[in-house]
Amino acid sequence: MFKYIFLFELKYRIKRPATYIYFAIMLLLGWGLGSLMAGGIDIATANGLTGGGKNFANSPFNLHQYLISFGQLFGTFVVAAFMGVPVYRDFQYDAHPLFFTKPITKLDYLGGRYLGSMVFAIAAMFMMGIGFYVSTLMPYVEPSKIGPFRFMSYFNPYLMSIIPYTLFSGTIFFGSVALTRNQLLIYLNAVIILVLFSFASNLANELDNDLLASIIDPSTGVAFLKETEYWTVAEKNTLVLPLSAKTGLNLLLWMSITAALAVITYIRFPFTQAFDTGKKKATTPSALPPMVSEPEIIESMQAIELPPVSQEFALNRYLAQLWMLIKREFKGILTSPIFIAIASIGVLMMITSAAFSGTISGQLFGTATLPVTYQILNLLNSNFHLFMVAIIIFYSGELIWKEREVSINELYDALPVPNWLSFASKLLSLLGIVALLLGVIMVSGIIIQAVQQYFRFEIGLYLKTLFGYRFIDYVYIAVLAFFIQTLVNNKYAGFFVVVLVYMFNSLGLGLLNVEHNMLQMYSDPGLQYSDMNGYGHFTWPYFAFKLYWGGFFIVLGLLTNLLWQRGTESNGKARIHLLRQNFTGGSWAVLIGGLVLFIGMGSYIFYNTNVLNEFTNSEQQEEESADFEKKYKKYDGIPQPKITSVKLNVDIFPKKRAFSASGTYLLINKSQVAIDSVHLNIDNNQEFSKLEFSRASEAVMIDEDFGYRIYKLSQPLMPGDSIRLNFEQKYETRGFYNSGSNTSFVYNGTFFNHGYFPSIGYDRNFELNDKEIREKHGLAERARFPSIDDTVAQKFTLISHDADWIDFEATVSTEPDQIAIVPGYLQKEWEENGRRYFHYKMDSKMVKFYSIVSARYEVKRDVWQAPDGREINLEIYYHKPHDYNLDRMMVGMKKSLEYYTQNFGPYQHRQVRILEFPRYAGFAQSFANTIPYSEAVGFIADVDEEDVDYPYYITAHELGHQWWAHQVIGGAVQGFQFLSETMSQYSALMVMEKEFGPENIQKYLKYEMDTYLRQRTAERVEELPALLSENQLYIHYNKGSVIMYALKDYIGEDSLNAAMKRYVAAVKFQEPPYTTTRDWKRYVEAVTPDSMKYVLTDMFETITLFDNQVKDASYTEENGRFKVSIAIEAKKIRDNGKGDETEIALNDYIDVAVFAREKVEGDWKDKTLYFEKQKISRSVDTLTVWVDEKPTKVGFDPYNKLIDRKPDDNTRRITVKKDN
Amino acid sequence: MQLTINGLSKTYPNGTQALKGVSLEISTGMFGLLGPNGAGKSTLMRTLATLQEADSGTAFLDGLDLLKDKKEVRKILGYLPQSFGVYPRVSAEEMLDHFATLKGIHNSRERKAIVEALLHQTNLYNDRKKMLGKFSGGMKQRFGIAQALLGNPKLIIVDEPTAGLDPAERHRFHNLLSEIGENIIVILSTHIVEDVSDLCRNMAIIHKGDVVLSGVPSDLIAQVNGKVWQTVIEPETLETLSSQVKVISTRHAAGKLRVRVFSESNPGQGFESVSPDLEDVYFLHIKTGETQPNLIAG
User: Fold this and answer.
1) Helices vs. strands in chain B: H and E counts, helices first
2) What is this structure's pTM?
3) How far A317 CA sits from the closest chain B CA (Å)?
4) DSSP code of residue A766
5) Chain B residue whose CA is closest to A315
6) What is the pLDDT of residues A1074-1088, one digit of tens each?
7) What does the pLDDT look like over B114-149, one tens digit per residue?
8) Contact A384/A346 with Cβ under 8 angstroms?
9) How many CB atoms lie under 10 A from the CB of residue A1090?
10) Which of A119, A381, A977, B174 has its CA 20 to 30 A from that of A852?
11) β-bridge pairing B185-190 and B29-34
């Protein structure tokens, strides 16, 4: 009988058109995905999805990653449809008694149904892979994105993840519907599963234990990521996910759970005929038992006399009815078990994820930030958003179908109430639920803050954000859902269409490069809260867009109301007829009102985004850059004078988000030839009312589009000769953009820089870089960075191509309650005409790199005394409530000045100032004696004793730049950032180590190593050795930290610093050509013993990786001493920069260590018994070490000083004592 | 008060022609609409109750256009659909109060009085706190009637209200309806002949979308007086018989078949004259042109 049921299910499925629709959907999804990834739309999209460079669209890695995420995102619904329906179907059509009375067992019945459906669910999933494969054969794909076809690339993801996932989720769907017979669960389950999965993945990502994290994530996504995180491009293109401990145990766990669920379903399933269908159907009278007759009652019937009533039909009465209906519907949702279930899961997840992440986004190096209100709101909103959308989608359907599902609709439809009453009551009650949940978010947020001992509750911000900003979107989504449900007029198809439209609107448009927010429903230019600036200038554009969409949704709401199902007509023609009939004068008013709002605001927005400002999508921006290069590349490198002095008068108008300025440059011809014309680059968005040389000149070329101008001087500028350029300019904020805004100019926290002022000559830094994008625009391939040997490029720095060292002076004015700051020392401060003026002057040479900042500040001051007796003023300009970490920064500044002065040479200024700026950017940046510092990266850090103190670290890093970039600056060639960033990283590391000890540094370096290993895999051109890095962040920051710390360990801090000090002294403030990493290396090499020279080669001149591990460890006790045997495996690998690796011979000094455990102040800590560098020349070896105490742990490069592809297996506990 | 239906037609998208130019004149009192399942009764009822659109034709209640001026129609309408459900977890009293509010009865004292009165009239008063989900079929039908009587309906449309009820329940129904049907129009659709003969002042027979007969029940019966004949035959001779005479109905009785036929004169063959009833009229009209003789009422 099992076979019969099984075959019955198969045959049934084969006959159903739905089967083919689902197959087609999955096929199309796979095909669409493959087309996007293989460059079907454009190469940028393809690169974005595949990781770019040599990553193939059909590499095993990409296939695995995308087939699984698409399979889960979309396939889940298909699996739900296949697996949820089979048993339900029998109940729905009351066919179950027919089955249950047949001579079949429960196992036959359930098993047959289950397996029969599962075959199709899995087959549907395979359609996706087939679709993907087909797409790779299409003529429109980019051949370079397609690797060779390999069966296992496709099949392995199914084997390892998709089939297990389908079994797992399918079993849940099958079981839950079989046991409850609630069809809503079929779809609801799918959503809940997806949300729970993403929750599990997030949770898993928070865990430190990789193995555990990999196992507990049912989506296998974490296992996949952990297993492949350090894979190079070459590996991604060839290796399939192996069956390892991580993946294997994951499969074991979840397949066991699947089996358990199947067994539970089997046991709990009631296999009897007398079985309540669970669903309350409209009971027709014929189905009920006959009534007992009640003749005596019949006799007593009287003539009917009903009390008189008056009926009133007026608007206020309708409103009273509306209120009654809203209350009913609201209560109905609130008390329904499904709502309670979704809402409580949502709240639970929202709170636990907040609790688990310690806090909040913006975590750096594992150190959390304080739970400030906007962070909590961001976190809770993003966690709860999908729940909210799911609730809206489900309840819009539920509410619309509520009457029809119990067949009470005809009673309601014949009542003397207006059409809108029903729609309005349902919509408003759902919005009431949304508001209630927003309130729950607020309360949860406050509780989370209180639990974390943070009591600055900003109730106003909660209310404004949730009910002022967030609520609008939910209103629109609700109207959209009601409209679609009404239009489709079939509940489950309605759900599907709503989800499809929602996904297309939020994801699909982006993939199709539709970027204008006027085309994406209910979208806006973005909203970013900053403690300093509030919602600031984001507010109006946000609401302008919302009003525009408001007009749209008013029309949609009107259509919903006109199409609202009343009566029993359901075919299109009749409904259109009814629509016309319902279209009364009031409808006209609403329609016109909505359209006026939509078109009016639309025109207003278009005027702002496309007329006042230029709307360029990313494609057009590329084209502009390409055109600029094509037009002016010919001027690259022609002799031009250099700026040697900058004098500015800047008036900042924060409220208007504008400034006006006048200034003078002193230009000197430092070249060997006469210069007859000067090329100026100006910001074409600004108005330049004056551009005048101190010598007669004529504008021979003015290009308004690109802001490029050529002035011919009446007399050529002779070598060594100088000339002044006087200019006046005005920057105004005009209207708003389609997306984002210029956050340099805000109400509180203006921060802009030298880039807004004229520059001299063609700047090649603005050229497009990406090979494919250049090709698309007809540009030849370009080296990402000038070679280290490029002697022309060596004559410029990256910071400014038109200046070496300058004198700087500026007068800045701003609103009276703000302080304006530029590099230099304050000479004078005064008020005039209701504005506040500051005059600053720098007394030493500096690079042409200056910031202009204005905000309402509190100031904290301190002084540091240099060894030579000089006093350095320390100042922190901060936003009032952000005083949490000022002491850390202050100490950081002092310790940094102390270490750097002692080890690298004197500080060139008399002052250091830290200036807080809004979190629109998340960095700190060093200008001469001035460090703008984002409110997001330290001011609200919540540093515990064990944490990496990153306010301190960032302060030290930026202080480091006062030496590295502001004294020593390299030529604009390979390795430029090594000399600025890597050196600053090293400087900061040393200061941190002095303050917090080596253990804390190890914690920090673990992040650096991990980031390096992960990000190198995303390299799209070529990974370069550290000394040749080409603005590759993962090299000059992350690898830089690791290798500099190791180098210090190998050759000693003192000799390394001595070399650095000599180097600084030799090259600081030098005129071009500028220094390169070659010079640096020479100085360091001089202090490196011959036996260690290989370290320089490995770490700085090549890409060298290790794979070191302890295989086994044991000890024996002999005469009170302990002989420890450590079986090690060592592997040294050279990478050619493209991910091709070769193993090379070992002859290296590597740390060998033995530890014991001891209790220090109540905590168990490692106690070092033995720690030596041993020379390792065999890749498999057993080392012997004698120690005096009982060992508990051994290590082979335990602190990961070497770059190790598997950093976790370098230590091992000794648990076994050998008996010999 | 006069309800005038003129040339009402309706064809469903699947091609079913539910109404083919139905014209009727209905005045106050009970009006019975008799017809087999699928005759178009419910379509007609729903159209009059503003729930469905007609393709063509008109319906006026005095000056009120039933097809266009739905808003006004609903103010004077009481409607009980053929089958309806209820919210299982709401009490009868609460639900009636809810409907009363939606019928525009805003004065809470009046509303309370009418709800109470209707609960008494439909004999649901003792069960007024009971959840509707626990109601029996008869109780639910009575609840349906109660809600249809809320307000001051001038036009009451009840669609197959007695289907599936036991005789006592049906009896109660008839009483209730005939009492209220004095001064207003009550249209009752049914496929049970007795409902009409017991209750209705006027009636129409509708079949396959056509009105095949209308008038006062006693007049219609009188028209066939002396033309209905009955005999008992062996079942296997029915075929032969029906080729010779017009069979109205057959009924099994103790292994034999009792046959009633229509004939202007005595058909002989053992037939004897019987006094006709409404059922004879009904079957005679709906069977015209049909070959299957086995239509049995009930």
Assistant:
1) 10, 14
2) 0.81
3) 7
4) G
5) B104
6) 999 999 999 999 999
7) 999 999 888 899 999 999 988 888 888 889 989 999
8) yes
9) 6
10) A977
11) parallel
